[in-house]
Every structure is written in C-alpha cells, then in structure tokens.
Amino acid sequence: MLKDKNWVILEFDTPHNAELAHQEHHFSLSTWEKVPLIMLLYCVHAPPPEKVCNLEDISGIKFVKDWITEEEEHQLMDSVYQEWDQYDILKRRRVKHWGYAFDYKLNILTKQKIEELPEYCHVYIQRLYEQELIPHIPDQLTVNVYEPGAGIPAHVDNHTSFEDGIIIISMGSQLVMDLKKNGKTQSLLLEPRSLLVLTGDARYNWTHAINSRKSDLYKNRLIPRGLRISLTMRKMRMEEGCDCRSPELCDWWLEKKIGPVYDSTRIENVFVNEAYGYIYESGLYQDTVIPKIMDFIEELPMGTLLCDIGCGQGSYANVNRNIIYNGCDFNTTVVNNLINEPITKANILNLPYRDNYFDVVLCLGVLDHLSNEMHRYSAIREIYRIAKPNGIVIMNVYAMEQDHVKFSNQNNMIKLPVSTIEDNEILSSFITNKDEQENVPVFFHTYRHKELEQIVDIHANTTFIESFRDKERWNLIARKDEE
Predict the structure, then answer these.
(1) Among 188, 254, 244, 180, which Cα is nearest to 219's?
(2) Which of 209, 218, 224, 221 is nearest to 149 (CA)?
(3) Is the full-model pTM beyond 0.85?
C-alpha cells in the first residue's frame, strides 16, 4: 500500500484477468480530476475484513433489531428536525443534550440541570425498564445527528459521569460500530430502529468507535452511509470515584489529581510510581539500554552537564566519567537505594533546575507513563526549559506498533515481573501469575509513529536531528533552538 494515499482493493476471478487489467490501466490517466493518475499494484495480502460481531464474545452487550417501529422512527426524526436550529454544530455532526450537558472540552458531565428529557423519551424508558434491559433509569439524553462520513474516536463513556448502562437507539442510515478490547475488534452493524445497550464489561472495558468514512464494508457488502440520528440515554453518576477494573480507560484514574497542581494522577501514583518501587526492589527487572544513546554519551566532551530525567536504575550514569551526570527520579526507591550517584527526587512536571542549564537532557521511558495530554505537554515544556540553547534533548517512548502484541488503545497496562506486594491492597488485587512468576500491571501511554515529534514540534522551539526505532521504543534526538 502507498502510505497516506487513498486506495481500493480489486479482486479478480483469475490471475489472467488481473494481469490484463494491470497491463491496460496501470499508470493510466483518469477522467476524474481528483484522481488524475491510476496505479494498479499487487498486494500479497488484502486487508482483513471486519470481524462481524459475535454478541456472545462480549459480556454485557444487548442488541435488538427493530426495537422501535418505522412509525416511531419517523416521529422521533421529525422531533429532531423541528428543533434543528437548537443543535450545537460539532465536526460533521449536530448534538443536543437534555437533563445534563456534556462538556466535550473537559470531557465531563456538568452537574447543573438543563432542559428536562423530552416527553417522547419516557415511553422508551418505560419500555426498557419493563423489558429489564437497563440497570438504572436514565436521566440524561444526547441526540447526535451524523452527516455521511462523520465518526467518533474509540472511547468508553466517562466512568465518573455516568452509571452503568449506555443506551443507543439508531435511526436513519445504518453504519458499522467497532468495539475493541485487548487487541480484538468486533464490528457491529447498527441498523435503523435498532437498540444497543452496553453494561458491565461492554460498558467499562470495551471501547466503541465509528470510523470516519462514507461507506462500510460489512459481510463482503459495501454499505453507503446516509444521515444517521442516534439517541443516547444514560444515568448521571452522583458518587465520587470508580471501582472498575480498567484504570487505563477510566477518567477517575487518568485525570484525577491526588495533590497540588503538579502532583501525579491516581494512575501515575499507583500503577507507575508505587508499581516501579516494588519492581525495582524485587531485582527481577532491568532497564532497557539503547546502544545508539550509549554511544552518544560516550562521545560527549569533558565537563558536559547532563540531566537524566527518570534515571531509574542509572543505566547511563557511568557511561562517561568525564561528564557531570545529574540523575533525578520521582520514585523514592530509586532515589534512596539503586545507584551510587547522587540522585534528586523530582517530578517531571516541576523540575528543580534553573532555566537553560544543561548541555544534554535525557528523558527515556518517562513520557509514556504520563496519563493525560496536559501532563505530557507540561513535561515536554519542562524538558526544554532546563536545556541550554543549542543543547541536545534525547527522548524515547513506548511504541503502539509492536510485533509481539496488538494494542486496541493507546493507554494500556503492561505486565512487568515483581516479587510479592501483599502490603499494597490495590496493586495486589491486580497481580497475575504467569508461569509461577508474579506480574504487576504498569500504566503505559503508547505512542503512534511520529506522535512524539508532533507533540514536541507544538510545545518546544526545536530542530529534529534524528528519530529511530530501537526494539519496542520510538527514539528522538533533537536540538533546542535559540530563542
């Protein structure tokens, strides 16, 4: 496939016919101005078809075809059209809320009551209750109007805003929704008048998404999209916190601070800081060393000031004894016990160094443990703040594209070896035993190819020197530009 180019798969009944088509049309001129040149390229493997959803594979999902009648569908769509001018316009879709409004910028449900649910909702809520399809009576409604080609990214509905039970009634055009968990994708055709209810595992642990495209390939059939309207009903959550088993998908873990403005989120504190403390104490884990970075440090001239943020076991501390090495880490176990060099306890969001100070700044295996965009952006700015103009910044992050595992989402829990941690109630409840070796989950935000460069380019004044892949990690070497 040609990267970043539109393509379509053509399948011929015989190799001879495929060869004739290639001879006739490869590099031929098109009459369509948007595609001036046609290229026919053979591919070894066609893209795999979408895996048709097997409802038995997803615990907590309920799907009912023709749950509402055609007459009810027309009445509901007419109600939407009558209030058309009251809808907010988002990217390629319109939206309106009842009961409580959802703030898409903050990704939270506002606590202030707004317009009561429309009358037509109560008929369907009663029907849902009588058919025992819902765990809670909904008090919030969101109506989305999707233009052809519109979609929504993979997500789970906010854990702290809504109770268990997401109800979706589809009208108008049909389209495919993708549900993902642990690298597995299930594709479900949302037909008009159908009902989808997500509870339990399906609600909390499976992401759902609608890809942005104007048609879907489903069961070897091309299905064009038209205008689609969905009614999504949910119950507002009043209690604080969340007891789910998917902290990597939970806003309470990913966003909730546990201290002042620069302190970690809950997931960073428990599933990074505390987890690594036990991991390092167990002696069963060794920090990864990147040969190209090792070679770079060996060549640094005498007197170079180097800061190693998140130094861990200090793998680069003794590479070059002619430089002035400064290691820092947020983990108390690292600071107190692990390496002979003096180590400073520091949070990457608020580093205790003055501006424009270091000739070289390393930040290896740290940015992938930050749980939200604000923290990742702040960390980049701190890294560049302490680097001298024309100083070198070296960073690496865990790649989403891996050979040995397929990630469904960018936020993941990756198991690392550890000895017993019975004194930590939360971590011990997540312990798994593999081949008689205990493994504790550690939070990673995995990065897509070139994602790190894109973030750095926005938040720092920099020139990229080299980017490369080393085993599981994307690596970036850059220079801080003068102001």
Answers:
(1) 188
(2) 224
(3) no
Question: Which one, of 5, 10, 4, 20, lies nearest residue 47 by Cα?
Answer: 10
Contact 156, 244 (CB under 8 A): no
Task: Give the per-residue pLDDT at 314.
Answer: 86
pLDDT grade for 340, boundaries at 50, 70 and 90: low
CB 348 within 8 A of CB 380: no
Q: Is 416 helix (H, G, I), strand (E, B) or coil?
A: strand
41-77 b/e with 16+ CB inside 10 Å = b? eeeeeeeeebeebeeeebebbbbeeebbeeebbeebb
Q: What average pLDDT does range 250-261 have in this prediction?
A: 78
Q: Summarize pLDDT for 67-84 with one digit per residue, the tens.
A: 999 999 999 999 999 998
The full DSSP string for 436-472 is TEEEEEEEEE-B-TTHHHHHHHHHS-EEEEEEEEETT
**Gap between the Cα atoms of 478 and 483, Å rounded:** 15
pLDDT digits (tens, 9 = 90+) for 296-318: 999 999 999 999 999 988 889 98
What span, in angstroms and rounded, lies between the C-alpha atoms of 462 and 458?
9
From 169, 272, 306, 300, select the one nearest 228 (Cα to Cα): 169
Q: What residue type is 82 in one-letter code?
A: Q
Contact of 124 with 217, CB cutoff 8 Å: no
Element (H, E) at 308: strand 305-309
Residues 6+ apart with CB under 8 A from 480: 384, 387, 388, 389, 390, 391, 392, 393, 460, 461, 462
Q: What is the pLDDT of residue 177?
A: 95
End-to-end, the C-alpha distance of the chain in Å comes to: 41
CA angle 63, 65, 68 (to 5 degrees): 110
